[in-house]
Design a protein that fits this description.
Number of helices: 4
Distance between the termini: 35 Å
Shape: elongated
Number of strands: 0
Structural class: mainly alpha
Strand content: under 5%
Length: 169
């Protein structure tokens, strides 16, 4: 079946809200888990590491207590659901909604890129018992700023991907 023709003057209807409801709820839940997980890391784990930079203090990537088990399923799945939302319904929503979805997906991709950098380049420093406390402290500060950027990007994506469901005034 060919995709529906793009409607330039489309409006958000009750039918569209109903058809996208389950997908939007799942996407919102996953983005909230990602956002609040990053906030927790910033407010609890990272502040503790800045205050007391002990080399080798971070658990292994796949050890019990590793954040990998929390983020690995949720972050990529939220990007996939956002892309599915846009690909399934992008042609039948108003232009402003489609643009917001594109911006939200861009924010998520940006957040994933930063997290991949943090996980592969910065986190290994925290696991290395041979580095100095000064290096751990400096990397923790770098991590705090990069993670803060991720928090802003995920919050912006959450807003851009869900705000359209409210009535426009």
């Amino acid at each position: 079946m060919p995709p529906p023709k793009i409607q330039r003057d489309a409006t958000v209807t009750v039918e569209l809200l109903r058809r996208t409801g389950a997908l939007s709820i799942c996407l919102t839940a996953l983005l909230c888990m990602w956002l609040f997980g990053n906030l927790y890391e910033a407010l609890v784990w990272n502040l503790q590491l800045i205050a007391d930079p002990r080399p080798g203090a971070l658990v292994g990537a796949f050890a019990v207590g590793s954040p990998v088990y929390y983020y690995l399923p949720w972050a990529p799945l939220s990007v996939v659901l956002a892309v599915i939302l846009q690909s399934r319904f992008g042609a039948i929503v108003p232009v402003h909604v489609r643009r917001a979805w594109t911006g939200g997906i861009g924010c998520l991709v940006f957040a994933v890129i930063i997290k991949v950098f943090l996980i592969t380049q910065v986190n290994p420093t925290f696991r290395d018992p041979t580095v100095s406390s000064g290096v751990v402290h400096d990397r923790a500060v770098m991590w705090a700023f990069a993670n803060g950027t991720v928090i802003v990007a995920v919050a912006a994506a959450l807003l851009l991907l869900t705000r359209w469901r409210r009535p426009r005034s």
